[in-house]
């Protein structure tokens, strides 16, 4: 069996939503100290809905695939739903990751949460 699923390879080769959002409403940046990979997620939010999301990931193929999938999963969803995104859900949507690559999907969950947190902090009144 191949180490990586077709979906992982697809999102690695053709990542969705790559880039940055200049006037983002929330930005989350996280890293993994062991592998040194960094993931940054930008959110555009209108009326509590994630209307646009982009990512910049300096990391391994699984981290890129996880970021790409995570952005697809939260686009068009409410901020509350984005906050509920788990790394398990990202991994399942990718049809699995090798066990030593599960931490790459954890980065995606953490980056989305950090971006939502940033949004909440900026809009606290
Ligand atoms: Fe660390 Fe993939 S090896 S994020």
Layout of strands and helices, then pairs:
Blueprint: H1 6-13, E1 26-31, E2 38-46, E3 49-58, H2 61-74, H3 79-83, H4 87-93, H5 102-122
Helix pairs in contact: 1-2, 2-5, 4-5
The structure holds FE2/S2 (inorganic) cluster.
Tag the structure with descriptive keywords.
125 residues, Sufe protein. Chain: A, binds FE2/S2 (inorganic) cluster
What's the quick description here?
Helices cover 44% and strands 20% of the residues. It is of the alpha+beta class and 125 residues long. The protein has a single domain, classed as Sufe protein. Chain: A (Alpha-Beta Complex), CATH 3.90.1010.10.
Folded structure, characterized:
By secondary structure, the protein is α+β, with helices and mostly antiparallel strands. The protein has one domain (6-119): Sufe protein. Chain: A. It is built from five helices and three strands. It has helices at 6-13, 61-74, 79-83, 87-93, 102-122, and strands at 26-31, 38-46, 49-58. Strands 1-2-3 form a three-stranded antiparallel sheet. A hairpin with a 2-residue loop joins strand 2 and strand 3 (49-58). Helix 2 (61-74) packs across helix 5. FE2/S2 (inorganic) cluster is lined by residues 32, 35, 37, 59-60, 62-63, 101, 103-104, 107.
> In the CATH hierarchy, what is the architecture at level 2?
Alpha-Beta Complex
Low-pLDDT sequence parts:
none
Count of runs of 4 or more consecutive helical residues? 5
Helix content: 40-55%
- Strand portion, in percent? 15-25%
Mean pLDDT: 96
Q: Return the domain count.
A: 1
- The structure class reads alpha+beta
**Broad CATH class:** Alpha Beta
**Helix-strand topology string:** HEEEHHHH
Q: Please tell me what the overall shape is.
A: globular
Ligand identities: FE2/S2 (inorganic) cluster
Radius of gyration: 14 Å
